[in-house]
Amino acid sequence: MELKVCVGSACHLKNSRVVIEEFKRLISENNLEGEITLMGSFCMGKCGEKGVSVMAGNEFYSVIPEETETFFNEKVRGRL
Question: In terms of CATH architecture, what is 2-79?
Fold first, then answer.
């Protein structure tokens, strides 16, 4: 599964770096390096959303840093 996190200006200000680091930790802790490809992406065109723009597979989500682990467990691990 591809997991893309926006690193454009608006998402950078919403702490996309924190979301990326949390995804890295969760992928490693769950031994999912071979199943998930974590990528950065420039603007996804959803800057008006509350959180950081994330694409998991073909699905778009808005993720706030404080909810990254919950999102990962429900939307990413749940689809593998």
Answer: 3-Layer(aba) Sandwich (3.40)
pLDDT value at position 68?
98
How far is Cα 60 from Cα 53, in angstroms, rounded to an integer? 7
Nearby residues of 59 by Cβ (< 8 Å), 6 or more positions away: 75
pTM of the shown model: 0.93
How do 59-63 and 52-56 pair as beta strands? antiparallel
Look at residue 76 and tell me whether its pLDDT is greater than 90.
yes
User: In whole angstroms, what is the distance from residue 59 CA to residue 17 CA?
Assistant: 20
Residue 12: CB atoms within 10 A of its CB come to: 12
pLDDT at 3 over 90: yes
